[in-house]
Specification:
The chain is of the alpha+beta class. The chain is 56% helix and 13% strand. The protein contains six helices and four strands, in the order αββαββαααα. The chain has a four-stranded antiparallel beta sheet. Helix 1 crosses helix 4. The chain is elongated and about 60 Å long.
Amino acid sequence: LFALIEFEKYGSGYMSHMVHCSNYLGKRLREKGYDIADIHGQISATHQIFIRCGKKEMDTIYDNAYKCEVTLNKKHKELFYGYGIRLGTQEIARYDWNDEALDKIAEIVFMLSDTKIKIGEIQQLIEKLPEKKIHYAFNSQEIKRFQQLMLLKGQKFC
């Protein structure tokens, strides 16, 4: 119930920012030479970005991401014409990270393609990302108020 109420209040802004993040990041990755899937010119209407690539590049990106604790998925699907990488922007959007942070993420993904990975450089870029603080959510005072209301309702039924 709480999640639905929260989504009613913040969902529109969150979803709008999520789609922005997907399209902005997708464009930045395309500028770096990646084959980014799109439909009629639109990279995404959701939280997902798809990088189409060969199996070797997919495995390199995925293995390097694992080494650097970067979350992404590798896929073998028709959508990718074989192989690819799926990136999700839902968490990035929930933190309300700006385009400057997305530029850093694009650079991190680009560096993950290098077979001679520089883990230290990637970790430095990761450390420069903004704080992971949830933005599209009720504050702690509102959460406590909701919890108190739920406790009161629960007592009436006991």
